[in-house]
């Protein structure tokens, strides 16, 4: 008999835990879904090959580590601090087993990575056009000059150059455009959209983020002296993550990385890399283009959000001697907030 494919092996393991863990007690999908605060169809999908995120597997491990989980009138996941030493050991073994099955079942595109779009449809990278007062005053920014360079009027040029080359290299069969937000056509809006830069200047970022359910609001910077921040509102609490300046120099920016379905065409995606300053945007871009970090950051996204249509990460971006350091999302201090559609 052939061995199970990894996702099916995990699915069978999860079902066995629910049905066979404790002889004489068969827990229904509905009961277990209620324990986890999930829907019955979602739990059913895990038992049919969809890989749950690590947090869900941790809940499975804690719940099935002790029969005390089902001894009360209401089944519950005990707090880890309530477990005995023996129960904690069982939990750790079980969690390692489940995570191992999940890892072996991860569906990745070898050699392609996050920025690969397998459907080969058009990809449009969108940046803001600099306000007229921000455009450098040189002959090269004068359209009447023979040496006119249009790109001088583009915001987030470093991020655009970094990402455009990378996306083209991993999508050789796709057409990859770049546009300023004010120049988008009706057809551009329905492609795979990649939006660079924040809501102050990039009107496409503002329009798309307003249509999402992510509980994050990017505060504008109406004055040059403002630093702004990302405001998160959850469970009645408001938290603001803001950049850090020292003696007027930026030493830490904050950025949002968002991936979801394109609200103008649900068969395409939208990705947002948006910093409070340009360095934050570049850091969010480099998180998944930098050859030293992209694999581990893709692994983080895979573990946290596999199977989710929409998710968001608020990330710290360090700036050292005016140089942007690529954030490593496997380090908890670099992930300030995360959200996914499953946990809304």
Automatic annotation (TrEMBL):
PROSITE patterns for this protein: HTH_CROC1
Domain of life of the source: Bacteria
| Domain HTH cro/C1-type, chain residue ranges per copy | 14-64
Q: Which residues form a coiled coil?
A: none
- InterPro entries membership: Cro/C1-type_HTH, Lambda_DNA-bd_dom_sf
List, in alphabetical order, the Gene Ontology terms for molecular function in this entry: DNA binding
Instruction: Tell me what this protein is called.
Output: Helix-turn-helix transcriptional regulator
């Amino acid at each position: 008999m052939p061995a199970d494919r990894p996702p099916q092996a995990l699915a069978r393991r999860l079902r066995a835990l629910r049905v066979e863990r404790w002889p004489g007690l068969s827990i229904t999908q509905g009961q277990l879904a209620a324990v986890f605060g999930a829907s019955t169809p979602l739990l059913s999908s895990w038992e049919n090959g969809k890989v749950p995120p690590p947090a869900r597997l941790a809940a499975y491990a804690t719940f099935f580590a002790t029969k005390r989980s089902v001894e009360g009138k209401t089944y519950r996941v005990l707090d880890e601090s309530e477990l005995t030493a023996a129960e904690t050991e069982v939990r750790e073994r079980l969690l390692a087993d489940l995570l191992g099955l999940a890892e072996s079942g991860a569906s990745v595109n070898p050699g392609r990575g996050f920025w690969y779009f397998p459907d080969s449809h058009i990809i449009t990278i969108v940046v803001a056009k600099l306000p007229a007062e921000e455009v450098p005053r040189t002959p090269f920014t004068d359209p009447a000059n023979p040496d006119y360079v249009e790109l001088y009027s583009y915001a987030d040029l470093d991020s655009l150059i970094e990402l455009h080359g990378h996306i083209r290299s991993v999508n050789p069969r796709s057409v990859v455009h770049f546009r300023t937000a004010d120049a988008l056509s009706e057809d551009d809006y329905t492609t795979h959209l990649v939006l660079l830069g924040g809501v102050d200047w990039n009107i496409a970022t503002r329009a798309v983020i307003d249509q999402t359910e992510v509980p994050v609001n990017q505060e504008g910077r109406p004055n040059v002296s403002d630093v702004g921040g990302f405001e998160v509102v959850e469970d009645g609490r408001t938290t603001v993550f803001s950049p850090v300046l020292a003696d007027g120099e930026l030493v830490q920016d904050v950025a949002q990385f968002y991936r979801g379905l394109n609200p103008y065409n649900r068969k395409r995606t939208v990705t947002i890399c948006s910093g409070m300053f340009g360095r934050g945007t570049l850091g969010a871009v480099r998180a998944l283009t930098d050859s030293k970090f992209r694999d581990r950051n893709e692994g983080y996204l895979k573990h946290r959000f596999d199977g989710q249509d929409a998710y968001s990460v608020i990330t710290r971006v360090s700036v050292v001697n005016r140089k942007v350091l690529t954030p490593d999302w496997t380090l908890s201090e670099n992930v300030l907030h995360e959200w996914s559609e499953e946990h809304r």
